Amino acid sequence: MKRFLILLIAVLLMLSSVSCAPLSSPIIKTITVERDSREYQYSIVYENGRIRKAKPFSADEATVYYVDCSRVYSNIVNGKVVNNAKNVTIYDADKNAVSDQVLSDIVQITIKSIDHDIIDFKIFDYGEQYFIFVKLNTNWSDPCELYKYESTTQSIQYLYTWQNVNLIGIAEPAE
Prior knowledge:
Blueprint: H1 2-19, E1 26-34, E2 40-46, E3 51-53, E4 63-67, E5 72-77, E6 80-85, E7 90-91, E8 97-98, H2 101-113, E9 117-126, E10 129-137, E11 143-150, E12 155-163, E13 165-171
Antiparallel strand pairs: 1-2, 1-13, 2-3, 4-7, 4-9, 5-6, 7-8, 9-10, 10-11, 11-12
């Protein structure tokens, strides 16, 4: 009985320390709108993939680019979705085509890194940081994923997945 109590206390202490673990460093604040209810959600996204609700805030200025997904196509290779693209056009908010090597690289890296059909694709240029928001076609749900472009490694870092939202603004995560 004594062993059982000690073991139970040890397990409870481990569980309580896990649930109280810090969220890690905040990366970005987000404003999303739920597509069905049109409800705004304000959040802070952390580098460990967690999210926390935030008080309403105003979005910082960021340039948003839209990627034409009609030229992104998928194939099944060895049971996995493989995305490719040819002559993808990137547009600014005024629907003008944009030619920029960094944005083109981000598009290609993102397309090759994601293993689902991409049906919507936005790039937020936030100073020297780029955030990527994609909506995926998984047939069963409506995942909307946020990534950060890592220029030093030319890769994307997964941040968070929402369901059925649109990302409409971002801000510095100063707490």
